[in-house]
Amino acid sequence: MRAVVVDSFGGPEVVEVVETDVPEPGAREIRIKVSAAALNPVDAGVRAGVFGGAGKRIGLGWDVAGTVDAVGVASSWSVGDTVVALDHGVAKPLGTHAEYVVVDTDAAALAPATVDAVYAATLPLNALTAVQALDRLELTPGQVLLVTGAAGAVGGYAVQLAAHRGIEVTALARETDEEFVRSLGATGFTAGAVEPGRFDAVLDAAVLGAPALEWVRDGGAYIGLIPHAEPGSVRGVRTGAVEVSADGARLAELVRLVDEGVLTLRVAETFRLDEVAKAHARLDEGGARGRLVLVP
């Protein structure tokens, strides 16, 4: 089968499509025939060597939508099931940017019924990150949350999920994105100045760090997206960062919200697997509203 890997670190030019053996599922694993797989900033980080792994061949890709085509023992899935899954890991030999991928049986959920595989492939990593970040904040209905980077993939899901929970959301984004983030459920908007101590919590999807901490009230909460890089606590503000984990049960809840129209899936552009270097170059340019998706 064809799979996307890097043997050395660098820019888009180091990304390769190679021929390799089709992986076999072990106990409590399933093999998915990939229909679509999203490209995320974490893939660019792996490609650049941010997470280490020098000297290894590393497979890229975390998100996948496709069809189960083989199951290991003790799996609850059946051949032919259409699924989405998160294949977590920064230095794995194969990722989801391939024709087939093996994942833990508990990492998958039935795919949404209301969207195709290209859109479904944008859900797992970013929506799980958003919901797990919100869980860490422990907000209750009526509390006030600021989401930075609210027009991005994680930020957009965070706005929708928080609003769905009855949390009052203010979005921090570019002025040109105000109409969009309000359509996601933000009741407040800012493109710059923020009143210090205004919010019960900040979900810092833009990774602003210490400046965003100043916007949290005394005793509030801050959550970032880069583990171990969050600012230290001040004024009794609880700080932390989410390290996303695969969770098929939680992913199934997110799929349900897609099918109910609560969550909006966004695709900026699709690329063939053999165009993966071009896709990485587009990712590096920035500014895409929606995910870039690879189709084998």
Describe this structure in words.
- By secondary structure, the chain is of the alpha/beta class.
- The chain folds into two domains: about 1-125 and about 265-295, Quinone Oxidoreductase, Chain A, domain 1; about 125-240, Rossmann fold (3-Layer(aba) Sandwich), CATH 3.40.50.720.
- The chain has eight helices and 16 strands.
- The strands form three sheets. Strands 3, 5, 6, 7, 8, 15 and 16 form a seven-stranded mixed beta sheet that branches. A six-stranded parallel beta sheet has the order 11-10-9-12-13-14.
- Strand 12 (about 200-205), helix 6 (about 210-215) and strand 13 (about 215-225) form a beta-alpha-beta unit.
- Helix 3 crosses helix 4 (about 155-165).
- The chain is globular, with a radius of gyration of 19 Å.
- The N and C termini lie close together (about 10 Å).
- The relative contact order is 0.17.
Question: What labels would you give this structure?
Answer:
single chain, 296 residues, alpha/beta, Quinone Oxidoreductase, Chain A, domain 1, Rossmann fold, 2 domains, seven-stranded mixed beta sheet, six-stranded parallel beta sheet, 8 helices, 24% helix, 30% strand
